[in-house]
Specification:
82% of the residues lie in helices and 0% in strands. The chain has 98 residues and is mostly helical.
Length: 98
């Protein structure tokens, strides 16, 4: 998506899209790392790990968007959130095929 923004808009829009995709990717990575539960764990252990991972993901998402908006003064909001949403949608669509 960042490449399309670079081709059709400008470098700032491309950087904004890249930042949005990076936020989506990094927060999902945090979730995956925190969600770990040993194979054969009790359901309660798995659900607690899931809730903990979601909480970390939410906090990390807020921190990363705060960082983007405070440090990247020329950010284009539409490409930023379009790329973020597209990144999340990729995970949802991938679940259909897993």
């Amino acid at each position: 998506m960042a490449f399309l923004m670079l081709m059709y808009l400008n470098a700032v829009a491309a950087a904004s899209a890249f930042a949005g995709g990076a936020v989506g990717f990094l927060t999902s990575l945090v979730y995956a790392k925190k969600m770990f539960a040993p194979l054969g764990s009790e359901p309660k252990t798995i659900i607690v790990a899931h809730y903990r991972a979601e909480a970390y993901k939410l906090v990390f998402t807020i921190l990363l968007f705060s960082l983007v908006f405070t440090q990247f003064k020329e950010v284009h909001v539409l490409p930023l959130f379009m790329a973020y949403i597209a990144t999340l949608m990729v995970y949802w669509v991938a679940l259909i095929f897993v």
